[in-house]
Amino acid sequence: MKKRLTEKISGSLMQEDAPMAKFTSFRAGGCADLLVQPQNIKELQDVLQVLQEEGCPHMVLGNGSNVLVKDGGYRGVIVKLGSGFDHVTVEGNVIRCGSGALLSAVAKAAADAGLTGMECLSGIPGSIGGAVFMNAGAYGGEIKDVLRKVSVISQDGAHLSELDTGSLDLGYRHSILQQTGDIVLEAEFMLQPGNETEIKEKMAELKARRNEKQPVNYPSAGSFFKRPEGYFAGKLVQDADLKGVSVGGAEVSQLHSGFLINKGGATATDIIQLMRIVQAAVMERFGVMLEPEVRIIGEE
Ligand SMILES: Cc1cc2nc3c(=O)[nH]c(=O)nc-3n(C[C@H](O)[C@H](O)[C@H](O)COP(=O)(O)OP(=O)(O)OC[C@H]3O[C@@H](n4cnc5c(N)ncnc54)[C@H](O)[C@@H]3O)c2cc1C
Hints:
- The chain is of the alpha+beta class.
- The strands form six sheets. It has a five-stranded antiparallel β-sheet, with helices on one face. A four-stranded mixed β-sheet has the order 1-2-5-3, with no helix packed on it.
- It is built from eight helices and 19 strands.
- The chain folds into three domains: 2-83, Uridine Diphospho-n-acetylenolpyruvylglucosamine Reductase, domain 2, CATH 3.30.43.10; 86-210, 2-Layer Sandwich (Uridine Diphospho-n-acetylenolpyruvylglucosamine Reductase, domain 3); 215-297, UDP-N-acetylenolpyruvoylglucosamine reductase, C-terminal domain (Uridine Diphospho-n-acetylenolpyruvylglucosamine Reductase, domain 1, Alpha-Beta Complex).
- The model has no long low-confidence stretch (mean pLDDT 97).
- Strand 16 (246-247) and strand 17 (250-252) form a beta hairpin.
- Bound molecules: flavin-adenine dinucleotide.
- Flavin-adenine dinucleotide binds next to strand 3, helix 4, strand 9, strand 13 and strand 15.
- This is UDP-N-acetylenolpyruvoylglucosamine reductase.
């Protein structure tokens, strides 16, 4: 298969036994059999078609800020979108960007153009593709509020199509992409004219709030658990007296109990064991099952 892939994409854009700790914000976990970085839509399409014909499992990776790869690694191919997916253009009130562009870069481009609507998303450390997949959100706003449409390619590389916001079924940390496996190529956002200085002040204020309330100096994947209906995950964890509880190098953050952090040298197994301890304790105390928001993949 690797030989077939080298006919489609430069060998320098492929890495065998790729350490996923390097590509994910938890800085933990095993290796992927192969990581490929297509630089444009044509290369991505070619790669997906080869993987489909070979029956090879694969997963697209954005900025790796919501993925944990188990220590046994990922048996298959991780497709990380290359620099050809990073473009951002502003035209009037509309922003078009590649799915590999970071939310922070898109929000900055919006602010520079005096467009409001993305301030609340600007501190989320994900790519546009990952943010649409997760319907990422913060401080009362989510991608859904500003997204107009996306272009996608099917998992097998066979079909290109456009989906408007309505057909993405965006809900709390959910999009239809989690069922279809379609890969986002580009996204279009509709914003409103605003005051550049005020927009930048708002972004700075939200950044300061994050730095104060979240353990930003430690590797993590943000809030580890989804918000259960009627509760806040972090509050449940705190009320179950789990703040500071650790397994190996993994710890329930002292600063924000919704975060599991890598204090240094954590393995994915440490993190997953800690997750289970937290889930069991919260279930016992409050009868609530905490579901991970983080996508956990790979082998034990
Ligand atoms: C410090 C910190 C703070 C965070 N704060 C927030 C927050 O406030 N709000 C919030 O919602 N999240 C937050 N997160 C979580 C994370 O940043 C978001 O979920 C983000 O949207 C993930 O984007 P990503 O590019 O890193 O995706 P990845 O982690 O790379 O991937 C996540 C999922 O998206 C899929 N995916 C990635 N790219 C594509 C694509 N092009 N097409 C289709 N599927 C794709 C992957 O296959 C995977 O299943 C935080 C994380 C950290 C580390």
